[in-house]
Automatic annotation (TrEMBL):
InterPro entries, per database record: PCMT (IPR000682), SAM-dependent_MTases_sf (IPR029063)
Class in the EC hierarchy, top level: transferase
EC number: 2.1.1.77
Pfam family, one: PCMT
A GO BP entry: protein repair
Keywords: Cytoplasm, Methyltransferase, S-adenosyl-L-methionine, Transferase
GO CC annotation terms, alphabetical: cytoplasm
Region called Disordered, residue ranges: 1-25
Gene Ontology molecular function: protein-L-isoaspartate (D-aspartate) O-methyltransferase activity
Species per Swiss-Prot/TrEMBL record: Tepidimonas thermarum
Protein name: Protein-L-isoaspartate O-methyltransferase
Highest taxon, organism lineage: Bacteria
Keyword S-adenosyl-L-methionine listed: yes
Length: 239
């Protein structure tokens, strides 16, 4: 696929940002990201806007310095406090499910589980506004630090338990969760606008999570259960 003009993957001038706090991905991280995106495309991920976002956002900025060399491999990585950043192919799949067949940018989107903020930075390129919730204060603060130098105006980080959604920003054109509970919380369904889509893991049978996609239509909710996945648990309360 053509990736010319994909943010820093193309020939456009680089946005100024502070010196790399993380080094070790080689001098040209855009080339490494481009290779990652090519591999994802070969695996069947085809959504142009999603692939462009993955080519543009520097994943190595969101992981610990010690893990920077692995930032563009297709692996989940620890981000501290017992949590992980999903592997790029899973992030791409979720975003593709959220966006496919829909006009972009989407309107307001709610993300449950900010983690290190990586997916929020990707969503910012696909949606008008991103509301991203995290229940662990330390990770919420970490995401804020990670995102600050990128100066992304349309990401709003919220510290709180996302199982009740975020009514203040509702209704949403999309909801995407990076943590899975027993089922899809009803608050999330209620906060979708007609025509909106939700993508989330859920443990519909004990010990097995699946990706679930729900569309809100004029007639109600249409649910699809897709492949099995493994995300961290959706927990209640804050810490
Ligand atoms: N999208 C993230 C992935 C983070 S992992 C990234 O790009 O890094 C999932 C996150 O969901 C964890 O940080 C976990 O603390 C958070 N989480 C789990 N239950 C939650 C809840 N009820 N509300 C908000 N966040 C939650």
């Amino acid at each position: 696929m053509a990736l010319r003009g994909a943010g820093e993957g193309g020939t456009a001038p680089r946005r100024p940002h502070p010196p790399e706090h993380a080094s070790g991905v080689g001098l040209d991280s855009a080339a490494v990201r481009h290779a990652m995106v090519q591999r994802l495309a070969q695996q069947g991920l085809r959504h142009e806007a999603v692939l462009h976002a993955l080519a543009a956002v520097e994943r190595h900025r969101f992981v610990d310095t010690a893990l920077v060399a692995q930032a563009y491999e297709d692996t989940a990585l620890p981000i501290g406090w017992g949590q992980t950043i999903s592997k790029p192919s899973v992030v791409a799949r979720m975003l593709e499910l959220l966006c496919e067949g829909r006009a972009l940018p989407l309107g307001r989107v709610l993300e449950i589980g900010t983690g290190c903020g990586y997916q929020a930075a990707l969503l910012a390129r696909l949606c008008q506004e991103v509301y991203s919730m995290e229940r662990l204060r330390a990770l919420h603060e970490r995401a804020r630090e990670n995102l600050r130098p990128l100066r992304i105006p349309n990401v709003h980080l919220i510290f709180g338990d996302g199982t009740a959604g975020f009514p203040a920003g509702a209704p949403y054109a999309g909801i995407i969760a990076a943590a899975g509970g027993d089922d899809i919380p009803s608050a999330w369904l209620q906060q979708l606008t007609v025509g909106a889509r939700l993508v989330a893991p859920a443990e519909l049978e004990p010990g097995r999570q699946h990706l679930v996609v729900v569309e809100r239509t004029e007639r109600g909710y249409e649910r699809r259960v897709l492949e099995s996945v493994w995300f961290v648990p959706l927990k209640s309360g804050t810490a």
